[in-house]
Amino acid sequence: MPIPSGPAGPVLPSWAPGLSDVAQYVPQRTLVPTSGANNSEWTFDSTTRPTDVVVDGLIAKACAWTVLPLHHALDASLTQAAATVAAQHAAWAVEQAYPEREAKARDTATDTAAALLKEARQMRAELVIANDLAWDTDHGTVDTPYTGFDVVYSFPEPCLYGDLNL
């Protein structure tokens, strides 16, 4: 599904996280590379790497990723949760897209990215369930997602002598 784009870049949903929301997860990416200072900006702008334009695109993709598995439109009561999921996914994308040059820093960035993606996936799964419950009109009869485990056969314990009746 392509991301809608306007003249100023991608069109974000009203609940989309801001640049500073994403920066909270990856403050090390908000350092201005040419300033020589080691102070985080806590947001993205034209002087950071990546720039604000790039991160806005990643936020739009993260918003689409967040709502993709939903069975219904996002319930208004869950917009903050959806924004948090999208912010973590966008932070993962920032961390993955801009690799470090030094091996130790690269390993740390890879670990950070893996942790962000794992948590974003877990939170998205919980968001799907919460959204289904919010749209549930049967009061609690919503199906839980398939976990991969089905009971196929259920038999009593066999007797000691097997199938023969002695």
Describe the fold and architecture.
It is a single chain. The chain is an all-alpha fold and 166 residues long. It has one domain (5-135). The protein is 44% helix and 2% strand. The protein is built from four helices and two strands; from the N terminus they run ββαααα. It has helices spanning 19-23, 52-67, 79-97, 103-135, and strands spanning 5-6, 9-10. The mean pLDDT is 82.
Radius of gyration: 23 Å
Residues in β-strands, percent = under 5%
From N to C, what is the helix and strand string?
EEHHHH
Spatial strand sequence of the major β-sheet: 1-2
Largest sheet: 2 strands, antiparallel
Average the pLDDT over all residues and give the rounded result. Answer: 82
Structural class by SSE content = mainly alpha
As residue ranges, the low-confidence spans are none
- The backbone outline, from C-alpha atoms, is flat
Number of structurally distinct domains: 1
Helix count equals 4
N-to-C span: 67 Å
